[in-house]
Amino acid sequence: MSTARDIMTPDVTCVRSDESVADAARKMAGRGVGALPVRGPGERLMGMLTDRDIVVRVIAEGRDPATCTAGELVRGELVTVGSGDSLQRVLELMADRRIRRVPVVDGRVLVGIIAQADVARRLPDSTVGDLVTYVSRPAA
């Protein structure tokens, strides 16, 4: 069985909690990604900011993306996996928590991220289909 490190995307771009949502959106566009990890004071990983967060919680609410910060949008518990965690554990966590992306850490250091696309590129179609089904199911 492979580990999280085997399928993760390394070299993750982050956004600081005090950066504007507009700056975060430009980073996403520049990297061609739909989410960025958010770092707070002391480089502490606080959560994830998604393109959906920006649309639903900023634009749709009429907030100003130039003054709203990434840190204002972080909510809930941050879910991470260890770089040595088994792919089975990673997939179970993503399915159970219904998350499409999960940061990969080595101790407390962010070393990568695993997205559904990483799973799709590296694992059998049936595994990918199962993950998408579980992650996309309606909230209970």
Shape: globular
The order of strands across the largest sheet is 1-2-3
> Total number of β-strand segments?
6
Biggest sheet: strands, sense, closure?
3 strands, mixed
N-to-C SSE string, H for helix and E for strand: HEHEEHHEHEEHH
Mean pLDDT: 89
Our measurement of the CA-to-CA distance between the termini, rounded to an integer number of angstroms, reads: 31 Å
Number of helical elements: 7
Helix content: 40-55%
Estimate what percentage of residues fall within beta strands: 15-25%
Q: Which residues form runs of ≥5 with pLDDT under 50?
A: none
Structural class: alpha/beta
Rg, nearest Å? 15 Å
Structure overview:
With 140 residues, this protein is an alpha/beta fold. 41% of the residues lie in helices and 20% in strands. It has seven helices and six strands, in the order αβαββααβαββαα. The protein has helices at 4-7, 21-31, 51-59, 70-73, 87-97, 116-122, 125-136, and strands at residues 15-16, 35-39, 45-50, 81-82, 101-106, 109-115. A three-stranded mixed beta sheet has the order 1-2-3. The longest helix has 12 residues, at 125-136. The protein starts with a helix and ends with a helix.
